């Protein structure tokens, strides 16, 4: 789900960029990113079930702090359950559209970032399944290497959660809190471009019937710039009960995983 220049990055398998939008060198700037990952993990849960993911995106930034971007990845969670899959056809791609405004409170060193994030999963969804498309609003603060961001779902359904699933509850009000730390550890070893990332997240689904699905996730990552590429490894895990989500291909969706990647931003 995109290499945004905010705390979203730590929740994904993308290498952590600066937590909030950087000041543009000119009034308008456009950047691109592409990456190959051994697996796509979002908020502690696999999206590709042990299979690699090819991801990429484009970002526009204005010197005022306004930004807009798009990002895409292959996914498989929508179709991995055979005849019980969420989609009859398609559903194997995730496309994210996002935008917002980022800046700093005077010369305080405290950054802010507010915006929207629309997740899209094109394809033919089964009628009995709630919509997978999800719209979140977010707001975050950062200081030096630390950042905290709050995301709240404002759509009626989120990632197939909603009334069509039989819970009787809208997904509206589902929220996620992300706390992130990114630090240049290479400075202590005379190694250029070596960065460590720590992340903790809390996911809460709206509706009393969905309380058992509340969980927390963690990520510990290391990233090294090598010949203009970012090469890294992320360890992810959740505290979700193994029986809550069940297994797909013999593996629990939220169990601990190691993800290797190589990516480039240009």
Structural class: mainly beta
What percent strand? over 45%
Rg (C-alpha, Å): 18 Å
Q: Helix and strand succession?
A: HEEEEEEEEEEEEEEEHEEE
The whole-number mean of residue pLDDT values reads 88
Indicate the percent of residues in helices.
Answer: under 10%
Biggest sheet descriptor = 12 strands, antiparallel, barrel
Distance between the termini: 18 Å
Number of extended strands: 18
Pick out the low-confidence regions.
1-24
CATH class identity: Mainly Beta
The tally of structural domains comes to 1
CATH superfamily name? monomeric porin ompg
Strand order of the largest sheet: 1-4-5-7-8-10-11-12-13-14-15-18
Architecture, according to CATH? Beta Barrel
| Tally of helical runs | 2
CATH fold-level name: Porin
Global geometry? globular
């Amino acid at each position: 789900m995109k290499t945004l220049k905010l705390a979203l990055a730590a929740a994904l398998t993308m290498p952590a960029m600066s937590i909030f939008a950087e000041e543009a060198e000119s009034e308008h700037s456009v950047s691109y990113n592409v990456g190959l990952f051994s697996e796509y993990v979002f908020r502690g849960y696999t999206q590709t079930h042990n299979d690699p993911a090819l991801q990429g995106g484009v970002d526009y930034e204005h010197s005022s702090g306004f930004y807009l971007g798009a990002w895409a990845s292959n996914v498989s969670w929508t179709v991995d359950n055979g005849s019980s899959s969420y989609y009859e056809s398609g559903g194997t791609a995730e496309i994210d559209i996002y935008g917002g405004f980022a800046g700093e409170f005077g010369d305080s060193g405290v950054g802010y970032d507010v915006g929207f994030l629309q997740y899209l999963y094109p394809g033919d969804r089964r009628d009995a399944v709630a919509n997978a498309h999800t719209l979140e609003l977010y707001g975050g603060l950062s200081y030096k290497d630390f950042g905290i961001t709050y995301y709240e779902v404002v759509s009626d359904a989120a990632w197939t959660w909603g009334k069509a699933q039989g819970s009787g509850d809208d997904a509206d009000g589902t929220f996620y809190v992300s706390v992130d730390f990114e630090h240049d550890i290479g400075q202590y070893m005379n190694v250029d471009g070596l960065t460590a990332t720590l992340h903790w997240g809390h996911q809460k689904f709206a509706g009393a019937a969905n309380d058992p699905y509340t969980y927390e996730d963690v990520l510990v990552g290391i990233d090294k710039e090598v010949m203009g590429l970012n090469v890294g490894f992320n360890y992810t895990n959740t505290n979700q009960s193994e029986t809550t989500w069940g297994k797909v291909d013999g593996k629990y969706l939220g169990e601990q995983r190691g993800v290797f990647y190589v990516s480039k931003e240009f």
